[in-house]
TrEMBL record:
<dbReference type="InterPro" id="IPR004791">
    <property type="entry name" value="UvrC"/>
</dbReference>
<dbReference type="Pfam" id="PF08459">
    <property type="entry name" value="UvrC_RNaseH_dom"/>
</dbReference>
<comment type="similarity">
    <text>Belongs to the UvrC family.</text>
</comment>
<dbReference type="InterPro" id="IPR050066">
    <property type="entry name" value="UvrABC_protein_C"/>
</dbReference>
<dbReference type="InterPro" id="IPR038476">
    <property type="entry name" value="UvrC_RNase_H_dom_sf"/>
</dbReference>
<keyword id="KW-0267">Excision nuclease</keyword>
<dbReference type="GO" id="GO:0009380">
    <property type="term" value="C:excinuclease repair complex"/>
</dbReference>
<keyword id="KW-0234">DNA repair</keyword>
<protein>
    <recommendedName>
        <fullName>UvrABC system protein C</fullName>
    </recommendedName>
</protein>
<dbReference type="GO" id="GO:0009381">
    <property type="term" value="F:excinuclease ABC activity"/>
</dbReference>
<feature type="domain" description="UvrC family homology region profile">
    <location>
        <begin position="333"/>
        <end position="477"/>
    </location>
</feature>
<dbReference type="GO" id="GO:0003677">
    <property type="term" value="F:DNA binding"/>
</dbReference>
<dbReference type="GO" id="GO:0005737">
    <property type="term" value="C:cytoplasm"/>
</dbReference>
<comment type="subunit">
    <text>Interacts with UvrB in an incision complex.</text>
</comment>
<comment type="function">
    <text>The UvrABC repair system catalyzes the recognition and processing of DNA lesions. UvrC both incises the 5' and 3' sides of the lesion. The N-terminal half is responsible for the 3' incision and the C-terminal half is responsible for the 5' incision.</text>
</comment>
<dbReference type="InterPro" id="IPR047296">
    <property type="entry name" value="GIY-YIG_UvrC_Cho"/>
</dbReference>
<dbReference type="InterPro" id="IPR000305">
    <property type="entry name" value="GIY-YIG_endonuc"/>
</dbReference>
Length: 601
């Protein structure tokens, strides 16, 4: 594959060839990855179209400063490469598939007398992995079936021939109850053990027919040799396998190896159901939500979800059944919309799952919003506020014995934290540990700026502290001439008392009240934000103090060193030549001499 870079103005020089294109912004960040049958036509369409392009796409095009392309052999190869790049980098304008779960696998270990157990960690050198399984219950059902059919060991013993021959082990309870044949004491050969394991692999792959054929042949062989007890055991295993298959059967067993993918949409999101079907049995069923980023149509959304899910669940399906008409087929991706028969019934089942998932998401979202609305309305009643407090801002100070004083402001809109509105403050006008004066400074700075920029004031201001901090904040609002334009309260930590300006006595909200829990959450978030910032500042100041104690190293030189090496420890480990490239030979020599002189001091 060949990768090349272009300026946005050179889009007309791109080749008329399949490939993947990547857009980068001014900071060098990857913002979008796309695939194309013809790179020239697809990329040109972003820059030539003036009508029919949505606002988000126009915004993305304005950000593009560099284009990189990679040529591939086919559109299907481009699709796979695009998926890998999106999965690795998560560009902000690409479709977001909302699924942050890790799924379990079944692992057959690479050792003498291999074991089978579940894991969520993929370490290829440990053995062969089967899955992932979208449902832990489904995985446990398969594992239970294998342990009922075969005598696979569950112990963690090292069953190397040397240790078995030395007689280092004794049989355990699993042997006595018939779940293990005692390979640890030489009662089962590894070749015999591996025959069972090979059949277990077929079941894990969904090929139940192979195991059924073997059980049937062994049953007939035992019966012909008049070994009726062994024949009966094979019949019981065969019945168990057929019962398991009947429970997981959703379609005609002749539908051998297919994926099913259906999509339903609303204005902002798409909801996709994905199923894997082998020999008529459903072995995977997964619902995902996709958040639309640009102006993607349902065909593009479905293909994006399908490729990612096939990659995730290691699909080798011969054909994919879908619920929409495919207008732009991709060579190498066999998508079929069945019109009649068993395949159509599978698509209908998948679509029903996608519709139910969409309804479930909408209901959950409605319930969450209803709860938030209910809580902020309850807060309005509890505090007797004139308006619903759908915009709340909370302030907190942080310092240790007056060192590195900082403060924070957090913002909640409609009961939810809005991180982009959070603010950090260095205390500039106050010396020593004076929380009251610090509070006055940051409240003044915050609302002076909002007034100057003519931005809306919050519906409620919360001060983390008691009467003293609240009085200081009130003074700030009075001096700005906006006191009374927005409610302000203080919340004291010890008894969760709520103070209003001018009132000597606090009010108490029921400890079990949702409105008090919201206030506590806002206060705790402001405290966390302030503490995190304070630690960072204190750490940086400590580094700076160590360096500026060295003769010839001032604040600017210390900042250059810390910016390059990141820590004093790494500066100590650096050679004189490395340091000289940053601050010059003379200062580097002085720093090294000082280090040698003070070594062990």
């Amino acid at each position: 594959m060949q990768t090349s870079s272009f300026a946005p103005s050179d889009y007309n020089t791109l080749p008329d060839h399949p490939g993947v294109y990547r857009y980068f912004n001014e900071a060098g960040e990857l913002i979008y990855v796309g695939k194309a049958k013809s790179l020239k036509k697809r990329v040109s369409s972003y820059f030539n179209k003036n009508t029919g392009v949505n606002l988000k796409t126009r915004r993305m095009v304005k950000e593009i400063r560099k284009i990189e392309i990679t040529l591939v052999n086919s559109e299907f190869d481009a699709l796979l490469l695009e998926n890998n790049l999106i999965k690795k980098s998560h560009p902000k304008y690409n479709i977001l598939l909302r699924d942050d779960k890790t799924y379990p696998y079944l692992l057959i270990t690479k050792e003498n007398f291999p074991r089978i157990f579940q894991t969520r960690k993929l370490i290829p050198k440990r053995g062969t992995y089967f899955g992932p399984f979208a449902s832990v219950k489904a995985m446990n059902n398969v594992l239970d079936l294998i342990r009922e059919l075969f005598t696979i060991r569950t112990c963690k013993l090292d069953l190397s021939p040397y240790k078995i021959n030395e007689g280092k082990y004794k049989v355990c309870l699993e042997y006595h109850i018939g779940n293990c044949q005692g390979p640890c004491v030489g009662k089962q050969s590894e070749s015999d053990y591996l025959k069972d394991l090979e059949q277990a692999k077929h079941i894990l792959k969904g090929n139940l027919g192979v195991a059924k054929t073997i059980f049937r042949q062994e049953m007939q062989s035992y019966a012909e040799n008049l070994e009726f007890e062994k024949a009966q055991r094979m019949k019981e295993k065969l019945d168990l396998l057929e019962k398991y298959q009947a429970k997981s059967l959703v379609a005609n067993p002749n539908i051998s190896n297919h994926d099913v993918c259906s999509i339903v949409m609303d204005e902002k999101n798409a909801y996709v159901n994905y199923m894997r079907v082998k020999n008529g049995a459903m072995i995977v069923s997964k619902n995902v939500e996709l958040k639309k980023k640009l102006d993607e149509d349902q065909e593009e959304l479905l293909i994006t979800a399908l490729i990612r899910l096939q990659d995730q669940f290691n699909s080798d399906a011969e054909e994919v059944l879908v619920n929409i008409e495919i207008n732009n087929p991709i060579e190498g991706l066999n998508l079929v919309q069945p019109k009649i028969g068993d395949k159509k019934k599978l698509v209908e089942l998948s679509t029903k799952n996608a519709l139910f998932y969409k309804k479930e998401k909408a209901l959950l979202q409605g319930l969450n919003q209803d709860k938030k609305d209910r809580v902020i309305k309850q807060l309005q009643q509890d505090l007797s506020l004139p308006e619903i407090p759908d915009h709340i801002e909370c302030f907190d100070n942080s310092n240790i014995q007056g060192t590195s004083p900082v403060a924070s402001m957090v913002c909640f809109l409609n009961g939810k934290p809005t991180v982009k509105e959070y603010r950090h403050y260095h205390i500039k006008t106050v010396e020593g540990p004076n929380d009251f004066a610090s509070m006055k400074e940051i409240v003044t700075r915050r609302y002076k700026r909002l007034v100057e920029e003519e931005k809306p004031l919050p519906k409620l201001v919360v001060i983390d502290g008691g009467k003293g901090q609240l009085s200081s904040a009130v003074e700030a609002l009075q001096e700005l001439g906006i006191y009374g334009k927005m409610p302000i309260i203080g919340i004291a930590k010890r008894l969760e008392e709520i103070y209003f300006p001018g009132d000597s006595y606090p009010i108490h909200i029921d400890k079990k009240s949702e409105s008090l829990r919201l206030l506590q959450r806002i206060r705790d978030e402001a405290h966390r934000f302030a503490i995190t910032f304070h630690r960072k500042v204190r750490s940086k100041n400590a580094f700076g103090t160590q360096l500026t104690a060295i003769p010839g190293i001032g604040e600017n030189t210390a900042n250059k060193l810390l910016s390059h090496f990141k820590s004093v420890k790494k500066i100590n480990e650096a050679s004189e030549e490395e340091i000289a490239t940053i601050i010059g030979a003379s200062k580097a020599k002085g720093l090294i001499e000082w280090k040698e002189k003070n070594k062990g001091a």
